[in-house]
């Protein structure tokens, strides 16, 4: 099922579909993060990914509350975008032998995921506000703020903690 399907007739339908999309995405991310953690050799990167895995589980719980407030059962709908981002990350990580270069790739791949989530949550918040669903906006905003913070931490690991520098000087 694509984003725009025959099942979507109203803005409420669109909001629900978007919530199902991000719910699915968050669940896929909880499956992908442990693999990234195992491959990370930079301590700050591994720690950051572990912390974000815990955060992601809390984000899923918040999304379940959002579904509940809307009188819906929590469910996901397949999201080809997040599946593609994760697939590309897996393929890239599998091709890189140098661990310092791999760490730089892991940061970039994690940021691609964060940027996707930031985009989705921002849109969902705008739709929920427009539809008067103020009771769910705070849950979505908390998730959005965590995604933005995770992205900022990844920037720090890449730039200030030396991941990119080490990768650029690798043989």
From TrEMBL:
It holds the Pfam family DUF892. The keyword Cytoplasm does not apply. The keyword Coiled coil applies. InterPro entries: DUF892_YciF-like, Ferritin-like, Ferritin-like_SF, YciF. Keywords: Coiled coil. Residues 46-73 form a coiled coil. This is Ferritin-like metal-binding protein YciE. The lineage of its organism: Bacteria, Pseudomonadati, Pseudomonadota, Alphaproteobacteria, Hyphomicrobiales.
């Amino acid at each position: 099922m694509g984003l725009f399907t025959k099942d979507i007739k109203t803005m409420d339908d669109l909001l629900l579909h978007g919530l199902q999309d991000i719910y699915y995405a968050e669940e896929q991310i909880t499956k992908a993060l442990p693999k990234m953690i195992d491959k990370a050799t930079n301590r700050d990167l591994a720690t950051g990914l572990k912390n974000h895995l815990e955060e992601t589980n809390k984000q899923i719980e918040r999304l379940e509350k959002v579904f509940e407030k809307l009188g819906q059962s929590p469910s996901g709908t397949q999201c080809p975008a997040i599946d593609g981002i994760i697939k590309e990350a897996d393929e890239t990580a599998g091709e890189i032998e140098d661990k310092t270069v791999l760490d730089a790739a892991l940061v970039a791949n994690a940021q691609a995921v964060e940027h996707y989530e930031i985009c989705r949550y921002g849109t969902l918040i705008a739709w929920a506000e427009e539809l008067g669903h103020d009771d769910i906006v705070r849950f979505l905003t908390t998730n959005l703020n965590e995604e933005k913070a995770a992205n900022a931490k990844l920037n720090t690991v890449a730039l200030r903690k030396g991941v990119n520098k080490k990768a650029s000087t690798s043989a």
